Amino acid sequence: MPVGHGLEPDEDSPTSGSPPAAPGHPGPDQASKGYVDDIQFMGFNSRAEIQRMAHWAPWMELQKPEYWEEQTRSILREKTFFKVVMKKVFHIHNQSMADTPKILVTHKIRTDGKITLRCLVLNFYSAEITLIWQRDGSNQSLHMEVIETRPAGDGTFQKWAAVVVPSGEEQRYTCHVNHEGLPEPITLRWGEEWDKTAGLSLTGLILVSPFPTVVLLQPWFMLKVVIYVYDTQNMRNNGERKIMRV
Fold first, then answer.
1. Model pLDDT for residues 150-204, shown as the tens digit of each residue
2. CB under 8 Å to 103, separation ≥6 — which residues?
3. Where's the Ig-like domain (predicted)?
């Protein structure tokens, strides 16, 4: 008999099945369902008020309490393992993200005839960055308009600094940017742009449980394999782990 086991949000759960998510929670961080011939016979929801593997089919009521305790322990071991794995993955991912800033200088004519030069840095991680204008090598920190570093909405950050200069003197001004994701401090003038795209791209990560569970239910044999699909883009945005439907 074909048997499947996967992760997906609980929907239309019967009263005898996996407990629904507790009030206030949109869905499970971890959900597990077991199937035989496309019929679900057990399920687990990590956001239920009581975290346990529970039966979904009447014939599973014959299983002893020890069976459900072991199934629950197995699921929780998997969750602990993947928390460790994802911390390592995100450490690598965050390091690669630090290699992808984009820097450009814009030019705008003001109504008084002077020029606004704006040095804009996009798509950088982490948030710590140094951004300053110089005129002939002299810092213009007292004459700059600078915004606070702010999130871009995709897990990276952005920042800009602007300075007002006399028309025709634009090339005397340079923007200096220093960030851990840059191979070296970058210096730009108006009309120049620096863009480097490198590193690891993670929009989705598939992990297979290292704890295959063998369940003996007479008269058939079942091998349970759990597959996790992590939405890493949402993790960066929301600062939490989420599991996509599989």
1. 998 888 899 999 999 999 999 999 999 999 888 889 999 988 877 664 333 333 4
2. 119, 120, 121, 122, 175, 177, 186, 188, 193, 194, 195
3. 101-187
Structure tokens that stand for 70 in this block: 């072991």
Instruction: Tell me if 230 sits within 8 A of 245, measured CB to CB.
Output: no
Both 25 and 75 in a single domain? yes
pLDDT digits (tens, 9 = 90+) for 101-113: 889 999 999 999 9
Q: Is residue 56 part of a domain?
A: yes
Structure tokens at 63: 């299983």
Residue matched to tokens 């965050």: 94
Task: Give the residue carrying structure tokens 């704890």.
Answer: 211
Q: Domain check: are 116 and 147 in the same one?
A: yes
Q: How many CA atoms lie within 13 A of 146 on its CB side?
A: 14
Q: Which two tokens stand for residue 23?
A: 């009030």
How far apart are the C-alpha atoms of 72 and 6, rounded to whole Å? 15
Give the domain extent around 166.
100-195
Task: Give the pLDDT band (50/70/90) at residue 5.
Answer: very low
In this structure, what token pair is assigned to residue 129? 């960055």
> pTM of this prediction?
0.43
67 three-class SS: helix
Query: For residue 141, which amino acid is it?
Result: S
d(CA 6, CA 18) in angstroms, rounded, equals 14
Q: Whole-angstrom Cα distance, residue 193 to residue 172? A: 17
